[in-house]
């Protein structure tokens, strides 16, 4: 029985596809192909992730096989289509060996672009969500303020921040400040709307109980409403980050001289689609990693709330 399980775990579809993809990486082509070592390293990374997940049994084996079979099938078909069967033109769809080799060649530019983009994201999202939560508290709590400002904020928020991007980039003193303003607008107004709506929808019994303790308005906002209403805002953080990256990449394709979006725009202008693909993959990896960190933060925040309840 143990031998059967061992054989089933070793000789399965995922491992066969991994072996096929790795072997295909070393097939020569009639056009220039860079060293496959970086690409094979990526394949090995996914194979190790699969093996570790199987050993730790984080998911059912069938689910893991399905997930990693799709990943290795994608890489295998990409390589075969570009290099062997040639149904994908190698200029527009360069083989994965060439794409992943770029990470070993252009990593200094990518690192600089990463830190530049992350500075803009952290600054603008932090300001947008921080000020949005604060203003949303006041608008949601004070009815007169809500009736005066909420319609105006709703109207402004209905216009995508990307619409303002070309104009703000043109009038701002620096591109960096323009990017922060554009991303801030895309985060601030939706956060204000969500926060004020959350405050307005708080259970009246909770508010009456807090009022019975003779809390001041400031204490009511900070000690009662903020903890209750901020949790849904934390839950929407992934959407805010995704929105911020979308705005940033769009803004960086307009007038930046550094950043992840700039890297893609620069090489797209030179029709170097190998580097364009590498830039797109880098952006996808960065957003995925940030979402994973946000997921951990959400678990900690929700755990803290449950413990305090």
How do you describe this structure in short?
With 309 residues, this protein is mostly helical. Helix content is 82%, strand content 0%.
Would you write up a description of this structure?
Helix content is 82%, strand content 0%. It has helices at 2-10, 13-24, 37-56, 61-84, 96-105, 107-141, 143-157, 161-171, 175-200, 204-211, 217-235, 237-255, 260-269, 273-308. The chain starts with a helix and ends with a helix.
Distinct helical segment count: 14
CATH architecture identity of the largest domain: Orthogonal Bundle
**Class based on secondary structure composition and strand pairing:** mainly alpha
The CATH class designation of the largest domain is Mainly Alpha
In CATH terms, the superfamily of the largest domain is: MetI-like
Number of strands: 0
- Which outline best applies? flat
Write the H/E string, N to C. HHHHHHHHHHHHHH
Distance between the termini: 48 Å
What is the domain tally? 2
The major β-sheet equals: none
Helix content: over 70%
CATH topology of the largest domain: MetI-like fold
Strand fraction equals: under 5%
């Amino acid at each position: 029985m143990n031998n059967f399980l061992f054989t089933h775990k070793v000789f399965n579809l995922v491992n066969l596809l991994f072996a096929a993809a790795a072997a295909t990486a070393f097939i020569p082509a009639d056009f220039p192909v860079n060293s496959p070592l970086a690409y094979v390293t990526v394949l090995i990374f996914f194979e190790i992730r699969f093996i570790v997940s199987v050993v730790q049994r984080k998911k059912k084996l069938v689910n893991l096989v399905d997930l990693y079979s799709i990943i290795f099938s994608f890489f295998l078909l990409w390589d075969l289509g570009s290099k062997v069967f040639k149904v994908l033109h190698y200029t527009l769809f360069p083989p994965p060996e060439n794409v992943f080799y770029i990470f070993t060649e252009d990593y200094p530019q990518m690192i600089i672009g990463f830190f530049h983009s992350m500075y803009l994201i952290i600054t603008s999202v932090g300001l947008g969500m921080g000020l949005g939560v604060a203003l949303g508290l006041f608008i949601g709590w004070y009815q007169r303020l809500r009736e005066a400002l909420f319609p105006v904020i709703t109207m402004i928020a209905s216009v995508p921040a990307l619409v303002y991007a070309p104009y703000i980039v043109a009038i701002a003193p620096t591109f960096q400040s323009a990017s922060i303003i554009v991303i801030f607008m895309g985060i601030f107004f939706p956060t204000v709307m969500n926060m004020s709506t959350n405050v307005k929808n708080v259970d009246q019994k909770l508010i009456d109980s807090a009022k019975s303790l003779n809390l001041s308005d400031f204490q009511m906002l900070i000690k009662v409403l903020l903890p209750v209403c901020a949790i849904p805002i934390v839950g929407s953080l992934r959407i805010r980050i995704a929105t911020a990256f979308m705005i940033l990449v769009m803004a960086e394709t307009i007038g930046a001289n550094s950043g992840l979006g700039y890297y893609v725009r620069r090489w797209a202008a030179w029709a170097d689609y190998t580097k364009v693909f590498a830039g797109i993959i880098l952006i996808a990896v960065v957003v995925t990693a940030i979402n994973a960190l946000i997921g951990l933060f959400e678990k900690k925040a929700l755990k803290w709330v449950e413990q305090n309840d």
